[in-house]
Amino acid sequence: MTRELTPAEVDAGWTNLSSAASYNHYRSLSEAALRFVSETQSAKRIYTGIGPFDAEMRGISPGHLAMLVGYSHSGKTLVALQMIAHNRDKRIVYFVPDEPAPLVLTKLTCMTWGVSGAELEARVADGDPWGLRVLNETIEEYSNLAVFDRPLTPRAMSQGYDEVCDHWGAEADLVVIDYLDLLQVGDTVMAKADFAKGWGTERDVPMIVLHQTSRSAGSRGQAMRIDSGNFGGETLATYQIGVWRRKAAILTELTDLRAKAYKSDWTYERISQLEHDLEIAQYTVSVNLNKNKRPSGSLVDDIEFELDLDTGVLTPLYGSLPRQFQERRNLRAVT
Fold this sequence. Notes:
335 residues, alpha/beta, Rossmann fold, nine-stranded mixed sheet, 13 helices, globular
């Protein structure tokens, strides 16, 4: 049943919406206005925690789809976990059939406490009270995070979502799907993206969906752009965030140069420069905002983060060298 307009809406000259209540598809512009006002006034927007992105996106609104796109092992899941960590006060549903829930908890614990996965595992295995305590405190930190590591069928997704909302006594603030190809619906990536968009729109919840581009699109480590992967699903996204590793591009060029039968002086100089760049790039992950449908919102060029290889924490570099590279260089200088 369509609600009555408020006095302010009547004064604004909007048409009563009840005349469209019996239609399946037709909606008046008055309803679009109501939805716009509701979205604009709502505090239920999700922010990524990446300052330049949030300034331009102004939050992921209910019903909006943000695609997180990158090649295999490019850092997409780490970026998604950073976003989850930034919103730990929100009710989040995380569909991740590719990783068991204990692994997700381990990654969050390492990020939260700055401990390596190897150390955490060793201390828990030894029954170290500290290891058990930080696991328990991480669970408390993420008490509103529901991790579903089962196959992503439409029925299982809907049932899981309904169950956790019943447990919370409230709707979710964010749904994350890691990753798109694992949705067991449709025969194409476009069909899967269409389902994910519709599923989130029906529940009026912000969605972050990870997508792995094809080998040919990302294997050489190029920066992600709006057409990276050419998968079609990007047309349904409100925002698209690219994730990639510079080290992949460097390794590709190095391999090509080293394979040359004849090497000029320039070739040797270039190889030396690339080997130096590779030492730095092994500690970096790059991201950009290459699609943004928020009115007056701009795109954001490449931002580089340091990836802590032990803890998985991402830290913006702002043009500086990675801490881990500098520590390794200083250690070599001493020895």
